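Exercise (ungraded).
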Amino acid sequence: MSDLETKPSDTTAAGAQVNPVENKFTERLSHILGDLGKNGIFIALIVVVVLFSILTNGILLRPQNISNLIVQNGYILVLAIGMVMVIIAGHIDLSVGSVAAFVGAVSGVFAVQWGLPWWLSIILSLLVGALVGVWQGFWIAFVGIPAFIVTLAGMLIFRGLALVVLGNANIGSFPAEYRALGNGFLTDLFGEFELDPLTLGIAAIAIIALFVQQFRTRKARQSYGQEVEPFAWFLTKLVLVTVAIGLFAFALASYKGIPVTLIVLAVLVLIYGIIMNRSTFGRHIYAIGGNLHAAELSGIKTRNVTFWLFVNMGFLAALAGLIFTARLNLAGPKAGDGFELEAISAAFIGGAAVQGGVGTIGGAIIGGLIIGVLNNGMSILGIGIEWQQAVKGLVLLLAVAFDVYNKRRSGGR
Amino acid sequence: MTDDIQARTNILEMQGITKTFPGVKALQNVTVDVQRGEVHAICGENGAGKSTLMKVLSGVYPYGTYDGDIVFENEVVQFRDIRDSEAKGIVIIHQELALSPYLSIAENIFLNNEQKGALGLIDWNKTNHEAAKLLARVGLKENPTTKVRDIGVGKQQLVEIAKALSKRVKLLILDEPTAALNDEDSDHLLNLILHLKEQGITSIIISHKLNEIKKVADSVTVIRDGKTIETIAKTDVTEERIIKDMVGRDLEHRYPDHTPHIGDEILRVEDWTAHHPQDPTRVMVDNVNITVRRGEIVGIAGLMGAGRTEFAMSLFGRTYGSKISGRVFIDGKEVKTRTVSEAIENGLAYATEDRKTYGLNLIDDIKRNISMAALDKLERFGIVDDGKEFQVANEYRKSMNIKAPSVLSKTGKLSGGNQQKVVLSKWIYSDPDVLILDEPTRGIDVGAKYEIYSIINKLAAAGKGIVVISSELPELLGICDRIYALSEGRITGELPIEEATPESLLKLMTMEKPR
């Protein structure tokens, strides 16, 4: 591959033989601390959960509430996935709430007014969302209008169109299969048990898959000579995650089982995680956000990438709209109000950078969960919507401030 | 006693100025004396330290960050920032003009020096009236209310000077003032400098255009490698002497040995023409014809603004310019290079002049920067092979001697030399036939330069065609097999290395279009 057969000059190459005396203990400690720094957002989630569990006398962690938490926040998390990708590329999308409302209304026309089969309605609605993305992506990527403007316009346009489609009325009573998207549980398919075996089975499979995947990655890294974390720490983290999944599954199983929304989310996180981490498309997104000029001069088709990003965002906004409509069993004019702000907050709380180039799907999901727990916990405590808003705003500000502080301290730019 | 005489005639004495950046001594014991009422030229190659010296003088680098003394009007001055120096009457006009395009000429002139009337509000009549007077002094016939973006660069330059005059300037510093101007505007500007001299304003002009130095300068100080070489009085100024001072350094051992093994033609560019992106009437690259053979290192020499980067970028996926025409042949076969990916597919690679802005994703790691231009070599069904990517990057880290703890280090934290090695790795991995390297060693210390030259040699030895664009003549003379000279967008000559000397090249590089 390399045309250069330079003399091996390892001795000088390792300009980073910082401190050979550094002993194993400090090395391990630095690993753990480094991980904690990287997973600061995860720790923040745990802190919020613990805090509200105490404040609500454990109501927060009741099986039914945990299940509700997922279902109530599903659509925000779906949006957050698309939003963090848009933000990583250095753009923003203000229209997702309106698009979700518009697609919800359109799906009402398909499924209720025209009486199309539920699956066809869903497919057509997702297609409409993607077309909205095509429209916005065209203006942003190929005409060169800033995403802020295009999606601000889109926010108005699609809110307006949603009202037009609804014709000043709600569309309601969706088919049961459609409603399952927002309200359904996997157990409905198999009947109910005291402790749903399907949920526990799926959790067990998930844990096994996680172990296999983690061990394989670790091995692959080692075989390529890549540095890996100390085994003890690696195992500790795995066990902690396993316990968390187990408790979570147990909670779901003792209520109604796995919500359909959770399945949808899990599939999305898996697919989009791979896209962002491992696919060329994902790499191009990071490259564009990190340095647009350099990406362009490296032959990346930056316009195409931007275009498809917004098509994808339109698709996910449509999906969020469907889940929300299904949950309410109603397509109404106020649907999706403020979704864009929650999704954007989730991405930023989850560590995305305003100037682009930085962010992860996992971070955005955790950011979304933090907002969800805040919403849920404060509702249980009976705190009014006005204070909920203020607290969420403050959390967003503090999360980003913490991020900025961290970067400055570590000497990044 | 001589000191006394000097004290009376010198407006400025910079004594033993030394300025160090981490790892680099930019200025070493530089001494410059400027007499009251003269036009003093400061001459030197790019990177010699001219701009650094002026930044020290104007307070951009505040007192305490350099060693040595600045004596202005018989008084040791210690500027904390540019406002301090302006208060004393020292005004610097930078190469990139500092005007706000959407404000009017008058508003720009009095920016942060607003002409106020009663109640501290801006008096617009006074502002425009005073601006008109200043415009008359610099010979600019424009309405003071015209927006700056609506006038050309030459006139904008004059607005900058008017702005300086409004601050009661005593010492005017112009950094490459004519670099972006056409001949007519240049002439006007130079005449204005002479005119201001008659009004008692001292000027320092930084330039490497020898003809204009000869026209306006009363004395010339040459700086090379951060040191003063000599100050020449007007009567003794000859082009030969300045050129010798500018380039006369030890060329031995700065460049690795290179025995060319030149093969068949790999790149031919015919009649390449490109126009300015915003102003399609301005020809930036004018009918350029070049050839490069396998194993050959071809240099492109040109002064700033000659169209070197413009040529390379218009060729590489039309990333610069408008109305681009011409033909490109790789291996004798005509190819299109309309987009960057098309250019890469057809075997071109272009390492940009400005690594940080155009070359690297500084917030990402070495590994991902190296794979950026050739990710398709690492993917299957759209999924990148992480491990292989790590392996590839690691091999480059070793073979290119990139000094970093691991390939997972962020490129933003590397030194200039190591960043450049990452950029080169990226392009080598894309496996091109021809590499165009734009200022490959700019801002890199001497040791790393040697390594970069060695890499270039190895690439040539592997049968690649190499084009090196550089404003450092010794560098081109040290590593190239053949050198084209570029002036005003045209190839003004082509010299095999045996015939190329700094003098012969500079002559070609300053050759003007017949008018």
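Further reading is listed at the end of the chapter. For now, observe: Residues 98-168 of chain B form one domain. Residues 144 and 333 of chain B are 56 Å apart (CA to CA).
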